[in-house]
Specification:
Strand content: 5-15%
CATH class: Alpha Beta
Distance between the termini: 34 Å
Largest sheet: 6 strands, parallel
Number of domains: 1
Number of strands: 6
Order of helices and strands: HEHHHEHEHEHHEEH
Strand order of the largest sheet: 3-4-2-1-5-6
Shape: globular
CATH topology: Undecaprenyl pyrophosphate synthetase
CATH architecture: 3-Layer(aba) Sandwich
Length: 236
């Protein structure tokens, strides 16, 4: 264990990652955006293993937003195809490592092959006891919140019975704790419709590092930054 790792006093229970910068990484190397997305996807298993080794129990990865459908059709097809192939390529090793995979977001708009691959990954790893990795694919927090409201209305729940706890049980993330730390790569300083309800008291960490280059050193820096903060949750 490095001195940086030894200096970490408090490891977050749940880390959420906005994985940004694949396109800019590819452009810097005079490669296609497809090449960048592939490189970014190739980094995921490595990062999962690093967080697990440091004691993080939950990891949420923002892989494809509801707004990403507005990208050119060719790029959307690339992203769906890369995700499908990545699940096939990495699933057995992730399962052998004890990783439990979950999905947050919509499944109804995905290709049949990708939907089937996601459902298979969830079923195969459902009894694993290692780090829980939630992949946010076709995820948008505004849609998630509106959908929760619609389901509450559909269930004829009286207004006086609606609490934060009840509302949370209608969200995609009902089975996982709120994120302690949200990280965004590639220098952008915004949340982009990600975990709006859940991030009310999360700590934020932004880095200029592009996602395909995000490494163990960057993971340790982010957790060290979190560890050095005092979380008061509105208290003194």
């Amino acid at each position: 264990m490095s001195s940086k790792e030894e200096s970490i006093k408090n490891v977050p229970n749940h880390v959420a990652l906005i994985m940004d910068g694949n396109g800019r990484w590819a452009k810097s190397k005079a490669k296609s955006r497809y090449f960048g997305h592939q490189a970014g996807t190739n980094n995921i298993r490595n990062i999962i293993e690093i967080y697990a080794s440091l004691g993080v129990k939950y990891l949420t990865l923002f892989a494809f937003s509801t707004e990403n459908w507005n990208r050119p059709n060719k790029e959307v097809s690339w992203l769906l195809d890369i995700m499908t192939k990545t699940i096939s390529k990495e699933l057995n090793e992730l399962n052998a490592s004890g990783v439990k995979i979950q999905h947050i977001g919509r499944l109804d708009r995905l290709t049949p092959k990708l939907k089937k691959a996601i459902e298979h990954s969830i079923e195969l790893t459902k009894n694993n006891s290692g780090i829980i990795v939630s992949v946010a694919f076709d995820y948008g927090s505004r849609y998630e919140i509106l959908n929760a409201v619609k389901m509450i209305v559909k269930d004829n729940i009286s207004p006086d019975s609606i609490s934060e706890e009840l509302f949370n049980n209608y969200l995609y993330t009902k089975d996982i704790p709120y994120p302690d730390l949200i990280i965004r790569t590639a220098g952008e300083i915004r949340i982009s419709n990600f975990l709006l309800w859940q991030s009310a008291y999360a700590e934020f960490y932004y880095t200029d590092v592009l996602w395909p280059d995000f490494s163990k050193d960057d993971v340790v820096k982010s957790i060290k930054s979190y560890s050095d903060r005092v979380r008061r949750f509105g208290k003194l």
